[in-house]
Write a structure and sequence with these properties.
alpha/beta, 3-stranded antiparallel β-sheet, 9-stranded mixed β-sheet, Rossmann fold
Length: about 260
């Protein structure tokens, strides 16, 4: 899915002289610096934040400590941090330039004490000082395509985000299983055609899929994305939620999508 179009409360772009743009998502409550060219966040970020925040109710913990695997521009981590139920978020990102911009964004948004970004490989986060078994919630928007499927972008940041060059969904599952406390939650956004593989990988790594929701661009069209929650060391069964629609038939965003753009209250 693509980045939301127009509307200053969703993320107007102010061109900056150093090859970076400034966004104002979540109704202007955070500021996101990201490159004019290269990896840029999309509507997937808002869908993931909305889905993950609803999982917090089931965690039954007063203050939730969260991590994001592959934090990119930092928009998901900072969206989560807007929730009073979140105590702290740690974003783990392998690309140094994106880590630098995310830290700049957090400080500019007044979230520097609640969100931290670390340069590191999600396959081995302990090398970056991350302790296993430390998190209640882990979120990730892993690359959707295996190498060899489709055109790989010549821009490295885009290539890593879209294709399994630096990490795979199996890497994300294994890392999350180690990072989470027992009964901790992993929330992902993925593509439906690779959903069987994802569910299999989750179970192989001790993560039990418990919640699934399909996202459709419009009510009459097929699902383009799938939101999945899995719990570590859980025997809870799977719940398939009603579908989410991004647009109404008239092309406008649905009320539910508008609420996702707004973020946590």
């Amino acid at each position: 899915m693509t980045q939301p179009e127009g509307g200053g409360d969703r993320g107007d772009i102010a061109g900056l002289s150093d090859g970076v743009t400034l966004e104002s998502p979540f109704r202007g409550r955070v500021r996101i610096y990201q490159p004019k060219k290269g990896y840029r966040y999309s509507i997937d970020a808002f869908l993931l934040v909305d889905f993950a925040l609803r999982s917090i109710i089931d965690l039954k913990r007063k203050k939730v400590v969260a991590a994001e695997l592959g934090s990119g521009s930092g928009v998901v981590s900072m969206g989560l941090a807007l929730s009073p139920a979140i105590e702290h978020v740690t974003g783990i990102e392998i690309i140094p330039e994106l880590v630098y911009m995310s830290r700049r964004s957090a400080d500019s948004s007044g979230l520097g004490k609640k969100v931290g970004f670390i340069e590191g490989d999600l396959k081995n986060p302990t090398t970056a000082g991350i302790k296993y078994g430390s998190f209640d919630l882990v979120v990730s928007n892993p690359p959707y395509r295996p190498v060899g499927e489709g055109r790989v972008s010549p821009d490295f940041t885009k290539a890593v985000a879209r294709h399994e060059i630096a990490s795979t969904v199996d890497d994300v599952s294994r890392s999350a299983s180690k990072l989470l406390k027992n009964e901790g939650s992993l929330c992902l956004i993925y593509i439906p055609e690779r959903l069987p593989e994802l569910l299999m990988r989750l179970q192989e790594t001790g993560m039990e899929p418990v919640r699934l929701r399909f996202v459709h661009p419009r009510p009459a069209g097929p699902a383009r994305m799938a939101l999945v929650e899995a719990l570590k060391s859980s025997s809870k069964g799977m719940e398939v939620e009603p579908p989410m629609f991004v647009h109404n038939e008239d092309g406008n965003y649905t009320a539910e999508m508008e609420a996702a753009f707004e973020g946590p209250k």
